[in-house]
Amino acid sequence: MTYARKPDQTTIFPPEIGSHEEALHKPFSWLVAALQHDPAAQFTSFTKNYSYGIRTCMEMVHATDLASGDHADPSHPPLLSVTAREELMLFSIEALGTLGDRASEEIERLNQKHAKGAR
Q: 75: buried, middle or exposed (CB in 10 Å: 19+, 13-18, 0-12)?
C-alpha cells in the first residue's frame, strides 16, 4: 500500500482518509478560534493540560501508596504495579520539567515583547 505524505507532517497517512477538514474527529482545544494562535493563550492551555495530566498521575500514585501501606487490604490490590508507579512518577517529573521550560520560554517572550514596546 502506498501512503501520501504532506511535507509539514512527520507521520504518513493513507490518501483515502482525506483532509483534516473532512475528518469527523476535530482536535480539541480549550481555546476559542480567535485565541488559537495567541502565544499567551496557547501557554495557558498547555499548562492546563499538563497540570491535569500530572494531577491524574499523582492521584493514581497516591491511591497505590494508600493500598500498599501498613493498613493495606489484601482483597483490594494496589492500583499500580511497582514498575507502573515508578513510570508515572518519572513521567510526572519530566512533565513538570517541560512545564517549567515552557514557562521560562513564555517569560522570555513576554520580556522581549515588553522591551520592544518600552522603546
A: exposed
111 SS3 class:
helix
| Residue 15 resides in a domain | no
Cell of 57: 498521575
Cell matching residue 55: 494531577
The CA-based dihedral angle spanning residues 53, 58, 59, 60, taken in that order and rounded to the nearest 10 degrees: 90
Q: Which residues does residue 13 pair with via DSSP β-bridges, in sequence order?
A: 4
Enter the pTM of the model. Answer: 0.71
Beta bridge partners of 30: none
DSSP state of 4: B
Give the residue numbers spanning the domain of 86. 51-68+78-119
Instruction: Find residue 45's DSSP bridge partners.
Output: none
In tens, the pLDDT along 40-97 reads: 999 999 999 999 999 999 999 999 998 987 878 888 889 999 999 999 999 999 999 9
